[in-house]
Amino acid sequence: MPPLRSLLFVPGDRPDRMAKALASEADALILDLEDAVAPAAKPFAREVCAAFLAEAERGRMIFFVRINPLDSGLAEADLAAILPARPDGIMLPKSESAASVAALARMLDGHGASPETAILPIVTETPAAVFGCGTYADSGARLVAMTWGAEDLPAAMGSTARTGDGAYTPVLETVRALALLGAHAAGVAAIETVYPAIDDPEGLAAYAARGRRDGFTGMLAIHPAQVPIINAAFSPSPAEIARAQAIVALFGRNPDKGALAFEGRMVDAPHLKAARALLARADGG
Asked: pTM to 2 decimals?
């Protein structure tokens, strides 16, 4: 699957918003059958999502569908409705561990889904799920990314997500770090959660930059206007690409050296690995 910088949520019962989302520069759309859709509207939303997927041109965007939780009694109906239309992947809410991914994978197999149908779990939405963040390494080839959320867990705990100045509470900072580390331990893309203030582009840019600095590789979006800012934050700059190329070239000229001087500082194997990873992202691989 190509790099996922921006993943844009779209309510599953709003075909008008789906059409607008297609015009965005998002790397992926997430058609939402869960939180964005009222219970009575879910059958209609399944029909809308299936019709959209059946007609959407493939190639530029990746199409995920966020189904309802596995224990909701709705997930089977979600999958039965949308899998014939061949979504690229399924976003799994309320995932508690690798066992949740395995359960969804069995359901996909049971519905005859393509082996290429990916799974993207949200891994921090219950207290128990937080302790499962480190279990995803053996989830199988369907697992392509992991993300987290800052709203469901505080709701489950009767707490708040943010302090008075808008920063995450220490508990949420810990949860964010565990989700990030869990994704890297599993060797999949680490996707930062949404920035809920739609009319705050400066705040979004700062939040996305922090996410990339910390090791996230992409971010969820809730409005098309957020997408260009997120894409910019998670795309290597020309200066970063040039520096990475120079590091790779330096080691190429000195294959027998484990550490070298570069721009007045020492670089060694971790720097070379990071440079190669950055160039791979820049190339879209």
From this structure: 0.90
